[in-house]
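User: Fold this; C-alpha coordinates only.

Assistant: Input:
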Amino acid sequence: MAHADIGLIGLAVMGENLVLNMESRGFSVAVYNRTLDKVDRFLCGRAKGKKISGCRSIEALCRQLTKPRKVMLMVKAGKPVDDFIEQILPFLEAGDIVIDGGNSHFLDTSRRASYLAAKEILFVGTGVSGGEEGALKGPAIMPGGAFAAWERVRPVFQAIAAKADDGVPCCQWIGDGGAGHFVKMVHNGIEYGDMQLICEAYHIMRELLKMKADEMHDVFAEWNEGNLESYLIEITRDILAKKDEDGTPLVDKLLDTAGQKGTGQWTAITALERGVPLTLIAEAVFARNLSAMKAARIEASKILKGPKPVLPKNKKTFIRSLAQSLYAAKIISYAQGFALMKTASEYYKWNLAYGNVAMIWRGGCIIRSKFLNNIQQAYEKDPGLANLILDPYFREQIEAAQKGWRAVVSQALINGVPVPAMTSALTYYDGFRSERLPANLLQAQRDYFGAHTYERIDRPRGEFFHSVWK
Protein backbone atom coordinates (compact mmCIF):
# COMPACT_ATOMS: atom_id res chain seq x y z
CA MET A 1 0.00 0.00 0.00
CA ALA A 2 1.36 3.42 -0.99
CA HIS A 3 2.22 5.51 2.05
CA ALA A 4 5.60 7.23 1.55
CA ASP A 5 5.75 10.92 0.63
CA ILE A 6 9.03 10.57 -1.25
CA GLY A 7 11.52 7.89 -2.21
CA LEU A 8 15.30 8.22 -2.19
CA ILE A 9 17.85 6.06 -3.98
CA GLY A 10 21.47 6.16 -2.85
CA LEU A 11 22.37 5.75 0.81
CA ALA A 12 25.83 7.26 1.01
CA VAL A 13 26.19 9.78 3.83
CA MET A 14 24.53 12.63 1.90
CA GLY A 15 21.58 10.42 0.99
CA GLU A 16 21.15 9.09 4.52
CA ASN A 17 21.30 12.57 6.01
CA LEU A 18 18.74 13.96 3.58
CA VAL A 19 16.39 11.10 4.44
CA LEU A 20 16.77 11.78 8.17
CA ASN A 21 16.21 15.49 7.52
CA MET A 22 13.01 14.77 5.58
CA GLU A 23 11.72 12.40 8.27
CA SER A 24 12.44 14.93 11.01
CA ARG A 25 10.24 17.45 9.13
CA GLY A 26 7.28 15.07 9.15
CA PHE A 27 7.68 13.26 5.83
CA SER A 28 7.65 9.50 5.45
CA VAL A 29 10.45 8.22 3.21
CA ALA A 30 11.03 4.98 1.28
CA VAL A 31 14.69 4.18 0.59
CA TYR A 32 16.66 1.89 -1.72
CA ASN A 33 20.33 1.28 -2.37
CA ARG A 34 21.92 -0.91 -5.01
CA THR A 35 23.94 -2.59 -2.25
CA LEU A 36 21.14 -3.93 -0.09
CA ASP A 37 23.36 -4.29 2.98
CA LYS A 38 23.36 -0.50 3.23
CA VAL A 39 19.57 -0.48 3.42
CA ASP A 40 19.63 -3.03 6.24
CA ARG A 41 22.34 -1.21 8.19
CA PHE A 42 20.50 2.09 7.84
CA LEU A 43 17.19 0.64 9.04
CA CYS A 44 18.83 -1.08 12.00
CA GLY A 45 20.91 1.94 12.85
CA ARG A 46 20.24 5.62 12.27
CA ALA A 47 16.76 5.06 10.80
CA LYS A 48 15.51 2.71 13.51
CA GLY A 49 12.08 3.65 14.86
CA LYS A 50 11.54 6.40 12.27
CA LYS A 51 9.07 6.80 9.42
CA ILE A 52 11.56 5.32 6.98
CA SER A 53 10.88 2.11 5.08
CA GLY A 54 13.55 0.08 3.36
CA CYS A 55 12.97 -1.48 -0.06
CA ARG A 56 14.63 -4.49 -1.66
CA SER A 57 13.99 -3.32 -5.22
CA ILE A 58 13.18 -0.19 -7.22
CA GLU A 59 9.78 -1.66 -8.04
CA ALA A 60 9.04 -2.06 -4.33
CA LEU A 61 10.12 1.51 -3.67
CA CYS A 62 7.83 2.90 -6.38
CA ARG A 63 4.90 0.85 -5.05
CA GLN A 64 5.26 2.53 -1.66
CA LEU A 65 5.06 6.09 -3.03
CA THR A 66 1.90 8.18 -3.00
CA LYS A 67 0.95 9.68 -6.37
CA PRO A 68 2.30 11.61 -8.10
CA ARG A 69 5.40 9.67 -7.15
CA LYS A 70 8.54 11.57 -6.21
CA VAL A 71 11.83 9.65 -6.54
CA MET A 72 15.08 11.40 -5.61
CA LEU A 73 18.44 10.09 -6.81
CA MET A 74 21.54 10.68 -4.69
CA VAL A 75 24.01 8.74 -6.82
CA LYS A 76 27.28 9.49 -8.58
CA ALA A 77 26.97 11.92 -11.48
CA GLY A 78 27.17 10.69 -15.06
CA LYS A 79 26.16 7.25 -16.30
CA PRO A 80 24.80 6.02 -12.92
CA VAL A 81 22.07 8.70 -13.08
CA ASP A 82 21.04 7.60 -16.58
CA ASP A 83 21.12 3.94 -15.55
CA PHE A 84 18.86 4.49 -12.56
CA ILE A 85 16.43 6.59 -14.60
CA GLU A 86 16.02 3.65 -16.98
CA GLN A 87 15.47 1.29 -14.05
CA ILE A 88 12.84 3.57 -12.51
CA LEU A 89 10.87 4.37 -15.67
CA PRO A 90 8.94 1.05 -15.97
CA PHE A 91 7.33 1.72 -12.57
CA LEU A 92 6.31 5.34 -13.17
CA GLU A 93 3.35 6.92 -14.91
CA ALA A 94 2.51 10.31 -16.41
CA GLY A 95 2.98 13.16 -13.93
CA ASP A 96 5.43 11.35 -11.68
CA ILE A 97 8.62 13.19 -10.70
CA VAL A 98 12.27 12.15 -10.83
CA ILE A 99 14.75 14.32 -8.90
CA ASP A 100 18.52 14.26 -9.36
CA GLY A 101 20.14 15.70 -6.23
CA GLY A 102 23.74 14.91 -7.17
CA ASN A 103 26.42 17.11 -8.72
CA SER A 104 25.39 16.46 -12.32
CA HIS A 105 26.64 18.54 -15.23
CA PHE A 106 23.92 21.00 -16.23
CA LEU A 107 23.92 19.90 -19.89
CA ASP A 108 23.22 16.31 -18.79
CA THR A 109 20.34 17.66 -16.70
CA SER A 110 18.89 19.54 -19.69
CA ARG A 111 19.12 16.39 -21.80
CA ARG A 112 17.41 14.28 -19.15
CA ALA A 113 14.65 16.84 -18.66
CA SER A 114 13.83 16.75 -22.40
CA TYR A 115 14.06 12.96 -22.54
CA LEU A 116 11.68 12.45 -19.63
CA ALA A 117 9.30 15.20 -20.76
CA ALA A 118 8.70 13.16 -23.93
CA LYS A 119 7.58 10.32 -21.65
CA GLU A 120 5.36 12.71 -19.57
CA ILE A 121 7.65 12.35 -16.56
CA LEU A 122 8.70 15.53 -14.75
CA PHE A 123 12.42 15.85 -14.13
CA VAL A 124 14.02 18.11 -11.50
CA GLY A 125 17.78 18.64 -11.39
CA THR A 126 18.60 20.19 -8.05
CA GLY A 127 21.84 21.41 -6.57
CA VAL A 128 22.25 20.58 -2.88
CA SER A 129 24.99 22.40 -0.97
CA GLY A 130 26.11 22.19 2.61
CA GLY A 131 27.98 18.93 2.82
CA GLU A 132 27.03 16.14 5.19
CA GLU A 133 26.05 18.48 8.03
CA GLY A 134 23.94 20.63 5.73
CA ALA A 135 22.12 17.61 4.33
CA LEU A 136 21.14 16.61 7.87
CA LYS A 137 20.36 20.00 9.39
CA GLY A 138 19.41 22.12 6.39
CA PRO A 139 21.20 22.61 3.06
CA ALA A 140 20.85 25.27 0.40
CA ILE A 141 18.75 23.77 -2.41
CA MET A 142 18.74 24.96 -6.04
CA PRO A 143 16.02 23.16 -8.03
CA GLY A 144 15.47 23.52 -11.76
CA GLY A 145 13.91 21.56 -14.63
CA ALA A 146 10.19 20.94 -15.14
CA PHE A 147 8.39 23.86 -13.46
CA ALA A 148 5.19 21.78 -13.24
CA ALA A 149 6.97 19.73 -10.55
CA TRP A 150 7.78 22.72 -8.34
CA GLU A 151 4.53 22.85 -6.38
CA ARG A 152 4.86 19.12 -5.67
CA VAL A 153 8.47 19.19 -4.46
CA ARG A 154 8.41 22.66 -2.87
CA PRO A 155 6.84 21.57 0.48
CA VAL A 156 9.58 18.95 0.96
CA PHE A 157 12.48 21.07 -0.29
CA GLN A 158 11.61 24.24 1.61
CA ALA A 159 10.92 22.25 4.78
CA ILE A 160 14.35 20.57 4.78
CA ALA A 161 16.30 23.59 3.51
CA ALA A 162 18.34 25.87 5.75
CA LYS A 163 16.64 29.04 6.92
CA ALA A 164 18.35 32.40 6.67
CA ASP A 165 18.40 34.78 9.64
CA ASP A 166 15.08 36.25 8.51
CA GLY A 167 13.50 32.77 8.41
CA VAL A 168 13.30 32.54 4.61
CA PRO A 169 14.03 29.01 3.28
CA CYS A 170 17.29 28.78 1.33
CA CYS A 171 15.44 27.18 -1.57
CA GLN A 172 13.74 28.86 -4.50
CA TRP A 173 12.94 27.73 -8.03
CA ILE A 174 15.90 28.50 -10.33
CA GLY A 175 14.70 27.89 -13.89
CA ASP A 176 14.11 25.44 -16.73
CA GLY A 177 16.31 22.62 -17.97
CA GLY A 178 19.70 22.49 -16.29
CA ALA A 179 19.42 25.88 -14.54
CA GLY A 180 19.47 24.41 -11.02
CA HIS A 181 22.59 22.36 -11.56
CA PHE A 182 24.21 25.27 -13.41
CA VAL A 183 23.76 27.56 -10.41
CA LYS A 184 25.12 24.82 -8.13
CA MET A 185 28.12 24.47 -10.45
CA VAL A 186 28.82 28.21 -10.23
CA HIS A 187 28.38 28.01 -6.44
CA ASN A 188 31.13 25.40 -6.40
CA GLY A 189 33.32 27.53 -8.67
CA ILE A 190 32.99 30.47 -6.27
CA GLU A 191 33.73 28.03 -3.46
CA TYR A 192 37.01 27.11 -5.21
CA GLY A 193 37.85 30.82 -5.44
CA ASP A 194 36.96 31.55 -1.81
CA MET A 195 39.01 28.63 -0.52
CA GLN A 196 42.05 29.52 -2.62
CA LEU A 197 41.93 33.15 -1.46
CA ILE A 198 41.80 32.06 2.19
CA CYS A 199 44.69 29.66 1.58
CA GLU A 200 46.73 32.47 0.05
CA ALA A 201 46.09 34.68 3.08
CA TYR A 202 47.17 31.78 5.31
CA HIS A 203 50.28 31.21 3.14
CA ILE A 204 51.27 34.89 3.38
CA MET A 205 50.90 34.81 7.16
CA ARG A 206 52.95 31.64 7.43
CA GLU A 207 55.68 32.30 4.86
CA LEU A 208 56.04 36.10 4.91
CA LEU A 209 54.94 37.03 8.43
CA LYS A 210 56.29 33.80 10.00
CA MET A 211 53.13 33.39 12.07
CA LYS A 212 52.27 30.19 13.94
CA ALA A 213 48.91 28.43 13.71
CA ASP A 214 47.66 29.74 17.07
CA GLU A 215 48.40 33.33 16.06
CA MET A 216 46.67 32.81 12.71
CA HIS A 217 43.70 31.32 14.53
CA ASP A 218 43.32 34.58 16.44
CA VAL A 219 43.40 36.58 13.18
CA PHE A 220 40.73 34.44 11.52
CA ALA A 221 38.60 34.59 14.66
CA GLU A 222 38.75 38.39 14.50
CA TRP A 223 38.03 38.42 10.77
CA ASN A 224 34.94 36.28 11.33
CA GLU A 225 33.47 39.07 13.47
CA GLY A 226 33.68 41.63 10.65
CA ASN A 227 32.81 41.94 6.97
CA LEU A 228 34.67 38.69 6.17
CA GLU A 229 32.25 36.69 8.32
CA SER A 230 31.52 33.43 6.51
CA TYR A 231 31.39 29.69 6.94
CA LEU A 232 34.78 29.20 5.27
CA ILE A 233 36.48 31.78 7.51
CA GLU A 234 34.81 30.14 10.51
CA ILE A 235 36.06 26.65 9.71
CA THR A 236 39.54 27.98 8.92
CA ARG A 237 39.58 29.50 12.40
CA ASP A 238 38.68 26.11 13.87
CA ILE A 239 41.19 24.20 11.72
CA LEU A 240 44.05 26.41 12.89
CA ALA A 241 43.15 25.70 16.53
CA LYS A 242 43.06 21.92 16.13
CA LYS A 243 45.95 20.08 17.82
CA ASP A 244 47.40 16.69 16.96
CA GLU A 245 47.95 14.03 19.64
CA ASP A 246 51.37 15.49 20.46
CA GLY A 247 49.90 18.96 21.03
CA THR A 248 51.23 20.51 17.82
CA PRO A 249 48.93 22.06 15.16
CA LEU A 250 47.37 19.32 13.06
CA VAL A 251 47.23 21.53 9.94
CA ASP A 252 51.04 21.63 9.84
CA LYS A 253 51.14 17.85 9.36
CA LEU A 254 48.77 17.68 6.39
CA LEU A 255 50.23 17.00 2.94
CA ASP A 256 49.97 20.08 0.72
CA THR A 257 48.15 18.47 -2.21
CA ALA A 258 44.51 19.37 -2.89
CA GLY A 259 41.87 17.17 -4.47
CA GLN A 260 38.90 18.16 -6.58
CA LYS A 261 35.75 16.53 -7.96
CA GLY A 262 35.41 18.52 -11.19
CA THR A 263 32.76 21.18 -10.60
CA GLY A 264 35.33 23.98 -10.47
CA GLN A 265 36.80 22.72 -13.72
CA TRP A 266 33.33 22.61 -15.30
CA THR A 267 32.80 26.22 -14.23
CA ALA A 268 36.06 27.35 -15.84
CA ILE A 269 35.39 25.40 -19.04
CA THR A 270 31.86 26.80 -19.32
CA ALA A 271 33.26 30.32 -18.86
CA LEU A 272 35.71 29.73 -21.72
CA GLU A 273 32.90 28.41 -23.92
CA ARG A 274 30.71 31.44 -23.17
CA GLY A 275 33.58 33.96 -23.38
CA VAL A 276 33.35 35.10 -19.75
CA PRO A 277 36.66 36.09 -18.05
CA LEU A 278 36.40 33.88 -14.97
CA THR A 279 40.06 34.43 -14.15
CA LEU A 280 40.06 34.03 -10.38
CA ILE A 281 38.10 30.79 -10.34
CA ALA A 282 40.23 29.35 -13.16
CA GLU A 283 43.37 30.20 -11.16
CA ALA A 284 41.88 28.46 -8.15
CA VAL A 285 41.44 25.29 -10.24
CA PHE A 286 44.99 25.55 -11.58
CA ALA A 287 46.33 26.10 -8.05
CA ARG A 288 44.90 22.71 -7.07
CA ASN A 289 46.49 21.18 -10.18
CA LEU A 290 49.86 22.68 -9.21
CA SER A 291 49.52 21.46 -5.63
CA ALA A 292 49.03 17.92 -6.94
CA MET A 293 52.48 18.06 -8.59
CA LYS A 294 54.13 17.43 -5.23
CA ALA A 295 57.05 15.30 -6.43
CA ALA A 296 57.88 17.74 -9.22
CA ARG A 297 57.71 20.68 -6.80
CA ILE A 298 60.07 18.98 -4.37
CA GLU A 299 62.64 18.53 -7.13
CA ALA A 300 62.13 22.06 -8.46
CA SER A 301 62.62 23.52 -4.98
CA LYS A 302 66.17 22.14 -5.00
CA ILE A 303 67.00 23.89 -8.28
CA LEU A 304 64.90 27.03 -8.68
CA LYS A 305 65.65 29.98 -6.45
CA GLY A 306 63.57 33.01 -5.45
CA PRO A 307 64.03 36.02 -3.20
CA LYS A 308 64.55 35.70 0.52
CA PRO A 309 61.30 36.93 2.16
CA VAL A 310 61.62 40.18 4.10
CA LEU A 311 59.15 40.81 6.92
CA PRO A 312 56.95 43.91 6.50
CA LYS A 313 57.92 46.66 8.94
CA ASN A 314 54.49 46.96 10.56
CA LYS A 315 52.93 43.55 11.04
CA LYS A 316 49.56 44.76 12.37
CA THR A 317 49.13 47.21 9.50
CA PHE A 318 50.00 44.50 7.00
CA ILE A 319 47.44 42.10 8.51
CA ARG A 320 44.79 44.81 8.14
CA SER A 321 45.84 45.18 4.50
CA LEU A 322 45.65 41.41 4.11
CA ALA A 323 42.04 41.45 5.32
CA GLN A 324 41.28 44.18 2.76
CA SER A 325 42.95 42.17 0.00
CA LEU A 326 41.01 39.04 0.91
CA TYR A 327 37.72 40.94 1.02
CA ALA A 328 38.22 42.80 -2.27
CA ALA A 329 39.30 39.64 -4.08
CA LYS A 330 36.31 37.79 -2.60
CA ILE A 331 34.01 40.41 -4.15
CA ILE A 332 35.68 39.78 -7.52
CA SER A 333 35.14 36.02 -7.13
CA TYR A 334 31.40 36.54 -6.68
CA ALA A 335 31.28 39.20 -9.41
CA GLN A 336 32.81 36.77 -11.89
CA GLY A 337 30.45 33.96 -10.84
CA PHE A 338 27.37 36.16 -11.24
CA ALA A 339 28.68 37.45 -14.59
CA LEU A 340 28.87 33.85 -15.80
CA MET A 341 25.31 33.20 -14.61
CA LYS A 342 24.10 36.33 -16.41
CA THR A 343 25.69 35.30 -19.70
CA ALA A 344 24.43 31.71 -19.42
CA SER A 345 20.94 32.87 -18.46
CA GLU A 346 20.74 34.96 -21.60
CA TYR A 347 22.19 32.19 -23.78
CA TYR A 348 19.97 29.40 -22.43
CA LYS A 349 16.96 31.71 -21.87
CA TRP A 350 16.65 30.79 -18.18
CA ASN A 351 15.70 34.25 -16.90
CA LEU A 352 17.63 33.70 -13.66
CA ALA A 353 16.71 35.89 -10.70
CA TYR A 354 20.13 36.76 -9.26
CA GLY A 355 18.69 38.18 -6.05
CA ASN A 356 17.01 34.82 -5.42
CA VAL A 357 20.31 33.02 -6.02
CA ALA A 358 22.05 35.20 -3.44
CA MET A 359 19.14 34.63 -1.05
CA ILE A 360 19.45 30.85 -1.40
CA TRP A 361 23.17 31.02 -0.65
CA ARG A 362 22.70 32.98 2.60
CA GLY A 363 22.36 29.79 4.66
CA GLY A 364 23.18 26.10 4.57
CA CYS A 365 25.69 26.19 1.73
CA ILE A 366 29.49 26.19 1.84
CA ILE A 367 29.90 29.78 0.58
CA ARG A 368 27.35 31.30 2.95
CA SER A 369 28.65 34.64 4.13
CA LYS A 370 27.59 37.93 5.62
CA PHE A 371 27.81 39.94 2.43
CA LEU A 372 25.39 37.76 0.45
CA ASN A 373 22.70 40.02 1.91
CA ASN A 374 24.41 42.91 0.13
CA ILE A 375 24.50 40.93 -3.13
CA GLN A 376 20.79 40.18 -2.81
CA GLN A 377 20.07 43.86 -2.23
CA ALA A 378 22.22 44.88 -5.21
CA TYR A 379 20.22 42.71 -7.62
CA GLU A 380 16.89 43.66 -6.05
CA LYS A 381 17.74 47.32 -6.72
CA ASP A 382 18.95 46.59 -10.26
CA PRO A 383 18.01 43.14 -11.64
CA GLY A 384 19.88 43.99 -14.87
CA LEU A 385 23.12 44.95 -13.11
CA ALA A 386 25.90 44.38 -15.66
CA ASN A 387 28.54 43.48 -13.09
CA LEU A 388 28.40 43.25 -9.31
CA ILE A 389 31.35 45.61 -8.84
CA LEU A 390 29.34 48.39 -10.52
CA ASP A 391 26.84 48.36 -7.66
CA PRO A 392 27.45 51.45 -5.46
CA TYR A 393 27.99 49.41 -2.28
CA PHE A 394 30.53 47.03 -3.76
CA ARG A 395 32.24 49.80 -5.73
CA GLU A 396 32.78 51.69 -2.46
CA GLN A 397 33.98 48.54 -0.68
CA ILE A 398 36.61 47.85 -3.34
CA GLU A 399 37.74 51.47 -3.42
CA ALA A 400 38.19 51.42 0.36
CA ALA A 401 40.16 48.15 0.20
CA GLN A 402 42.17 48.94 -2.90
CA LYS A 403 45.29 50.40 -1.26
CA GLY A 404 45.69 47.42 1.08
CA TRP A 405 44.91 44.98 -1.73
CA ARG A 406 47.64 46.39 -3.95
CA ALA A 407 50.13 46.50 -1.06
CA VAL A 408 49.59 42.83 -0.21
CA VAL A 409 49.80 41.59 -3.81
CA SER A 410 52.93 43.68 -4.40
CA GLN A 411 54.67 42.45 -1.26
CA ALA A 412 53.75 38.84 -1.99
CA LEU A 413 55.17 39.03 -5.52
CA ILE A 414 58.32 40.88 -4.43
CA ASN A 415 58.95 38.25 -1.76
CA GLY A 416 58.18 35.24 -3.95
CA VAL A 417 54.99 34.12 -2.20
CA PRO A 418 52.51 32.77 -4.82
CA VAL A 419 49.11 34.48 -4.74
CA PRO A 420 47.52 33.56 -8.09
CA ALA A 421 43.90 34.20 -7.07
CA MET A 422 44.51 37.54 -5.35
CA THR A 423 46.66 38.67 -8.28
CA SER A 424 44.20 37.59 -10.97
CA ALA A 425 41.38 39.31 -9.07
CA LEU A 426 43.33 42.57 -9.07
CA THR A 427 44.27 42.35 -12.75
CA TYR A 428 40.63 41.58 -13.60
CA TYR A 429 39.57 44.69 -11.71
CA ASP A 430 42.19 46.82 -13.46
CA GLY A 431 41.29 45.37 -16.84
CA PHE A 432 37.57 45.86 -16.33
CA ARG A 433 38.01 49.50 -15.32
CA SER A 434 40.32 50.26 -18.30
CA GLU A 435 38.74 52.20 -21.15
CA ARG A 436 41.57 51.11 -23.44
CA LEU A 437 43.43 47.78 -23.43
CA PRO A 438 46.30 46.64 -25.71
CA ALA A 439 44.04 44.42 -27.82
CA ASN A 440 44.51 46.86 -30.73
CA LEU A 441 48.07 45.57 -31.08
CA LEU A 442 46.82 42.01 -30.74
CA GLN A 443 44.36 42.60 -33.59
CA ALA A 444 47.19 43.98 -35.71
CA GLN A 445 49.25 40.85 -35.00
CA ARG A 446 46.34 38.60 -35.99
CA ASP A 447 45.81 40.55 -39.19
CA TYR A 448 49.55 40.47 -39.96
CA PHE A 449 49.98 36.68 -39.78
CA GLY A 450 46.48 35.49 -40.58
CA ALA A 451 44.58 38.27 -42.39
CA HIS A 452 41.94 38.10 -39.63
CA THR A 453 41.01 41.79 -40.23
CA TYR A 454 40.39 44.50 -37.63
CA GLU A 455 38.03 47.35 -36.76
CA ARG A 456 39.05 51.03 -36.52
CA ILE A 457 38.20 53.61 -33.85
CA ASP A 458 37.49 56.20 -36.54
CA ARG A 459 34.99 54.03 -38.41
CA PRO A 460 31.61 52.51 -37.35
CA ARG A 461 31.63 49.21 -35.47
CA GLY A 462 31.06 46.29 -37.78
CA GLU A 463 33.34 47.54 -40.59
CA PHE A 464 36.42 45.36 -40.99
CA PHE A 465 39.73 46.15 -42.61
CA HIS A 466 42.91 44.36 -43.69
CA SER A 467 46.37 45.80 -44.17
CA VAL A 468 49.59 44.60 -45.79
CA TRP A 469 51.86 45.20 -42.81
CA LYS A 470 55.27 44.64 -44.44
